[in-house]
């Protein structure tokens, strides 16, 4: 017994149908068939059991092979369709193939029937296998897309030319573009030019064997907020070992950056007054010793009457007096100068590239700023009064000595000052 072959015969001539069946049986098939000769009968047959092949006459009374082929296509069923005709030209045969027929044969020459049936069945099986593979791939891609869409980290993937192939919802939300809007767009269409250039350079390094890589940058999100991020990316290859593109992720490190900046700020600034602290002042002093910004002048200042303010008006008033002093020093000196709170009521300032003449001018600015600030703070219980001392060093070896002299002058003034505005005196310190 041969292979079972279920044939739907669309044929108006029973003898011609029987002849085709005999030829199929001679080819080794065990044939089960049904003959129909109208559109309605064909539709009913297609709604029934599955057929292995359809063999259709090209011309029938009130019906045609092309109409039958159209019915099959509308059903969406992939069944081998062989068109057979008694006599027809090449143009009609080409039209049948163009409309989807798997083969076109002449009734007077059925020698190619068996190979055509075998080939058509094999082609349909291959198409079905390809459809299954495509569906499996779609299912996997759908699963992967659902998986990455659940992740809060923005993820994207590009082709070898840097064009976007896809992304997850987190990436869409961050850049403010739907998936369909960024597909086939380049990195320069998505990111700011400077960051896109940095990313591109990173990809070029990876393309030369750099492997997985990461770098930090700042992006502007859809809400207009700038976020600090780390770009993580890696190249992937196709089955033929050719480059498939790049997959990447963005890790938002804005909170970490803010925490780092806050810690950095706290390590160098005084919590109460907001100006530099003693640790930063000492670091700058050591750095200036080894630098080339001489002459360097040092100013020391002590807040007068802090204890009285604390005793009479409370420590909150004393704190305000310290903030007032910090504001005066900060406004009196240049941006490149270092004003710091180095003790409870003591302040100091480092003035690089400042000789004796420039120091005198700086002290005048300080006194002017003090007077102006007291006018602005006239509602405060006690006016701000500062005992001040200063000195100048010409080189690094003199800097510590200058600090000591400035400190001594400040304490002499504090000890001997009267109710009038303190007078400033300074002298040059040499090695």
From TrEMBL:
Source organism superkingdom: Bacteria
The record, for Pfam families, names: GGDEF, PAS, Response_reg
What's the name of the protein?
Answer: Diguanylate cyclase with PAS/PAC sensor
Q: Where is the PAS domain?
A: 140-194
Q: SUPFAM superfamilies under this entry?
A: CheY-like, Nucleotide cyclase, PYP-like sensor domain (PAS domain)
User: A Gene Ontology biological process annotation?
Assistant: regulation of DNA-templated transcription
InterPro entries linked:
Biofilm_reg_signaling, CheY-like_superfamily, GGDEF_dom, Nucleotide_cyclase, PAS, PAS-assoc_C, PAS-like_dom_sf, PAS_fold
Every copy of the GGDEF domain together lies at: 294-425
Domain (PAC) ranges? 213-265
User: NCBIfam families in the record, alphabetically?
Assistant: GGDEF, sensory_box
What's the source species for this entry?
Citrifermentans bremense
> What are the transmembrane regions?
none
**Which keywords accompany this UniProt record?**
Phosphoprotein
Question: Coiled coil located at which positions?
Answer: none
Q: Where does the record place the modification 4-aspartylphosphate? A: 57
Q: Where is the Response regulatory domain?
A: 6-122
PANTHER family per record:
BIOFILM ARCHITECTURE MAINTENANCE PROTEIN MBAA (PTHR44757:SF2), DIGUANYLATE CYCLASE DGCP (PTHR44757)
Phosphoprotein among keywords = yes
């Amino acid at each position: 017994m041969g292979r079972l072959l279920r044939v739907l015969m669309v044929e108006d001539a029973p003898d011609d149908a029987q002849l085709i069946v005999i030829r199929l049986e001679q080819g080794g098939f065990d044939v089960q068939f049904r003959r129909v000769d109208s559109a309605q009968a064909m539709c009913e047959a297609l709604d029934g059991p599955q057929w292995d092949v359809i063999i259709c006459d090209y011309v029938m009374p009130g019906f045609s092979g092309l109409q039958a082929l159209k019915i099959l296509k509308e059903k969406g069923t992939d069944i081998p369709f062989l068109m057979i005709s008694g006599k027809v030209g090449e143009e009609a045969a080409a039209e049948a193939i163009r409309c989807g027929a798997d083969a076109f044969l002449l009734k007077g020459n059925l020698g190619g029937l068996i190979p055509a049936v075998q080939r058509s069945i094999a082609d349909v099986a291959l198409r079905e296998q390809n459809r299954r593979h495509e569906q499996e791939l779609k299912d996997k891609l759908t699963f992967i897309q659902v998986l990455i869409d659940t992740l809060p980290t923005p993820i994207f993937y590009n082709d070898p030319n840097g064009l976007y192939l896809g992304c997850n919802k987190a990436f869409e939300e961050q850049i403010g573009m739907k998936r369909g809007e960024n597909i086939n767009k380049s990195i320069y269409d998505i990111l700011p030019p400077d960051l896109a250039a940095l990313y591109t350079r990173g990809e070029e390094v990876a393309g030369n064997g750099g492997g997985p890589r990461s770098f930090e940058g700042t992006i502007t999100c859809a809400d207009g907020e700038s976020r600090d991020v780390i770009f993580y990316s890696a190249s992937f290859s196709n089955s033929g070992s050719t480059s498939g593109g790049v997959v990447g992720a963005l890790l938002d490190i804005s909170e970490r950056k803010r925490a780092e900046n806050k810690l950095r700020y706290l390590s160098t600034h005084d919590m109460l007054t907001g100006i530099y602290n003693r640790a930063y002042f000492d670091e700058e002093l050591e750095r200036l010793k080894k630098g080339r910004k001489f002459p360097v002048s040092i100013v020391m200042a002590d807040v007068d009457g802090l204890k009285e303010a604390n005793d009479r008006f409370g420590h909150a008033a004393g704190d305000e007096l310290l903030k007032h002093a910090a504001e005066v020093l900060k406004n009196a000196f240049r941006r490149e100068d270092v004003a710091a709170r180095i003790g409870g009521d003591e302040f100091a300032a480092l003035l690089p590239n400042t000789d004796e003449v420039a120091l005198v001018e700086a002290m005048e600015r300080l006194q002017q700023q003090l007077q102006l600030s007291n006018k602005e703070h006239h509602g405060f219980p006690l006016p701000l009064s500062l005992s001040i001392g200063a000195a100048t060093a010409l080189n690094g070896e003199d800097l510590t000595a200058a600090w000591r002299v400035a400190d001594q002058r400040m304490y002499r003034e504090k000890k001997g000052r009267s109710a009038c505005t303190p007078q400033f005196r300074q002298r040059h310190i040499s090695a």
